[in-house]
Design brief:
It is a single chain. With 183 residues, the chain is mainly α. Helix content is 44%, strand content 5%. It is built from nine helices and two strands, in the order αααααββαααα. Strands 1-2 form a two-stranded antiparallel sheet. α1 runs antiparallel to α2 and α3 crosses α9. The N and C termini lie far apart (49 Å). The relative contact order is 0.17.
């Protein structure tokens, strides 16, 4: 495709913008993507995390439920820091934080159907961006077994049950409600 760009640039350099447009339209046309995916609910996210067994579907590495990570940051702020914008966070917030990835990127027509959603670490989600898997040479690993690893979601629920003051933290309270609905 770089040769198409080169030819279009050569036409423009000769002040033949119409020829440049023709080259682009014929050989490398812009195809607008219909992006109409709505944000995912936390319930749907947790359903995907549970289905995938809290593993990164690109690497097979175990991930840790975000509510559990938040409790660590609240109870040990110096040892396990968290910042809402990713500044000065403990590496676990990047390496172990489960996020939702679209197998077929939304930018390429992907949707929010469960069969197009997988669990991946935040760091791999950021690295992949909107690039299709085949372009990266990445593949999916099988789902994990939720009975063997639950991402410490049950630990989170047990901890909040015995430390009700955690429900005063909106993030914790939200995930606690979501877990009660989904589990």
């Amino acid at each position: 495709m770089s040769t198409v760009i080169e030819k279009a640039c050569q036409a423009i350099a000769k002040d033949d913008i119409d020829k440049g447009k023709e080259i682009i339209n014929d050989w490398y046309p812009f195809v607008p993507n219909r992006i109409d995916c709505k944000p995912l609910s936390d319930e749907k996210k947790l359903q995907v995390f549970m289905r995938d067994g809290f593993i990164d579907r690109y690497s097979g590495e175990r991930l840790v439920f975000q509510g559990t990570l938040q409790i660590l940051s609240l109870t040990m702020p110096k040892e396990f820091p968290y910042h809402a914008h990713g500044k000065m966070c403990h590496n676990a917030w990047w390496e172990l934080y489960p996020s939702i990835e679209h197998i077929q990127p939304v930018a390429y027509g992907g949707n929010n159907d469960l069969d197009n959603l997988i669990t991946v670490s935040q760091i791999r989600n950021n690295a992949k961006g909107s690039i299709p898997l085949h372009e990266l040479g990445w593949s999916l690993v099988p789902c994990g077994n939720i009975a063997e690893w639950d991402g410490m979601v049950h630990w989170f629920m047990d901890y909040v049950e015995t430390h009700k003051d955690m429900l005063n933290v909106a993030y914790i309270s939200n995930w606690y409600k979501v877990c009660n609905k989904v589990l």
